[in-house]
Design a protein that fits this description.
By secondary structure, the chain is of the alpha+beta class. Among the domains are: 171 residues, Beta-galactosidase, Chain A, domain 5, CATH 2.70.98.10; 197 residues, TIM Barrel (Alpha-Beta Barrel). Strands 6, 7, 8, 9, 12, 13, 15, 16, 20 and 21 form a ten-stranded antiparallel beta sheet that branches. Strand 25, helix 8 and strand 26 form a beta-alpha-beta unit. Helix 7 packs parallel to helix 8. It is globular and about 75 Å long. The relative contact order is 0.09.
Amino acid sequence: MHNLFTIPLFLLLSVLLVTAQAAEPSSQQLTSPDGSIEVTVEVRDAGVYYSVQYKKQAVIQASRLGFDIQGQPQLAANLEVTDVQRNTTHQAWQQVWGERAEVVDHHNQLSISLQEREGLQRKLELVFRAFDDGIGFRYHLPQQPNLQEFAIEDELTEFALAQNYHAWWIPAYRDQRYEYQYLKSALSSIDVAHTPLTLTDDGIAIAIHEAALVDYASMTLRNVSDNHKTLKADLVPWADGTKVYAKTPLTTPWRTIQIASQAAELINSDLIVNLNEPNRLGDTSAYVKPGKYMGVWWEMHIGSKSWSPGADQGATTERVKEYIDFAAEHDIDGVLVEGWNKGWEGEWWQRKPTFIFDEPVVGFDIQAAVDYASSKGRQLVGHHETAAGIAHYEAQMERAFAYYQKLGIHSVKMGYVGTRLEGKEWHHGQFMVRHFAKVVATAAKYQVMVNAHETIKDTGLRRTYPNLMTRECVRGMEYNGGSPDTGNLPNHTVIIPFTRGLAGPTDFTPGIFNFDYQEHRPYNRVPTTLAKQLALYVTLYSPLQMAADLPENYQGHPAFQFIDDVPTDWQESRALQGEIGEFLVIARKDRHSEDWYLGATSNETPRQLSIKLDFLDAGRYQATIYRDGEQAHWRTNPEDYVIESKKVKAGQVLKLDLKPGGGAAVRLHRL
């Protein structure tokens, strides 16, 4: 053994220096513009880790980053920093449509270039952005010799939460996709959850999601640590088990963490759209038009009509003309016709699809319906139900959209009913992401807006492709009518804006006025009052809102005036107050007038709210209030409502009395 004093001094200093360099991690900090959020990224020999603080309190503790690459070592450890870049962006951009006309993008960015010290010497770039309302980070793999075409077996991204927050979540890897009622539990009780996942505690609210999901698998969150507080990115796999088929250069979706001091502030965040690329479609004003629609749909769910041709057929020329007549009398832009095309016979959801997307069913003259709608200043809304048969649909997709363009149809509702795509693929993996990108691109080619059900979740791509209007991706209104004994709970619509709604527009299909389905659905009940149905047009955002009930249930009804008036495109939107699963108050200003609209909703608990009208502009307003009557109750007396009017101005306090399962909708017309 060498005696320390026999080693030459210069060699000893070299050994000590190398040891110190190996032990000393490289650390970079990034703060939000207002300084409330701080991100730390550490590059250690064992791997790369990030952590997040909010107002000097830990939110995310040291959490791992990296990849498992098929047939290669993990791309996670033994990395050195080769470059660090920082920049700041502060700009405003205009939305084609949305919750607000102008969005402010103010963030600080940190880009860290890394390379393996030895072995394959692969390169990896980490990009972090810090906004005042949260952070986003993603990976970029540049083109390189030892990483060209490859498969990702696992993404190592972790979210090591600092405490056992209250969690609002739905389970992943279930047959009904995203269509589950939300669970409230401790974070430690989660097994694997879809995103957005919302977490709360006193003085803080957090939502974990992703932005700009392109040619990649969607991210779920799996609880992996002994203390049950660390969630790991769990990419939804292909049927063969591979998570992502990729090639360099590869840029992953953003992993997003929205942070606020209270849950209602999460709703006011623009972080998801800010992390998406600008509009790639150019001027879409000729066909992308927010608005309202109604149509042949709800009567199938409540059992009075059928999708199948025959005696109970819903999609008949005569019935569609009745909808068109009502739409023409009111501010309803389009009429949806489900079951319009061939292939709906019998239990279509139980067999391989037989749909033909450019041939109408017997009993429905689509050209006559299009002409009649045009004569009334209305349009038909198309419908493509695929029954999860992707190959069958893609073989017809080009001519199907061309057919709609020829008919002058500029809006389509998509459907993917089925437990697996092609009988084997999840609705949330790279398979569906790739397919749906084709759908949106093809629709844009033929000037068609897309409203998608049972598809991949929203990640803000509406900014890049503004014809991608809205999606379901939630347990919607249909469960209250078409699924015996499994309707939604009264708190469901007071959870959605704080969870699913953070991802983007939601086609929930509100507006039910008739609460009695005794003939066909004796055990079903829409779990709201009528006034709350009106309020949902404000609290559940979508640029395409459905007046979901039958025209005969609306005809002559005084409360329909609110649906007639309420717009779907907004100059400004503000969540004013609320607690997840309890209540919510949102105000929105019409993009094309000086009017404001306010929606207030409650769960099964009655409550009195005081709302300060400090969001109003100067001047006086005529407030038309649609509220619960004194005896209103979602279960026993949902149709009890009152319409009243009063003059108000900015700064006044509006008091609202919400009954069980109730709500209030207010139009504030500028005088």
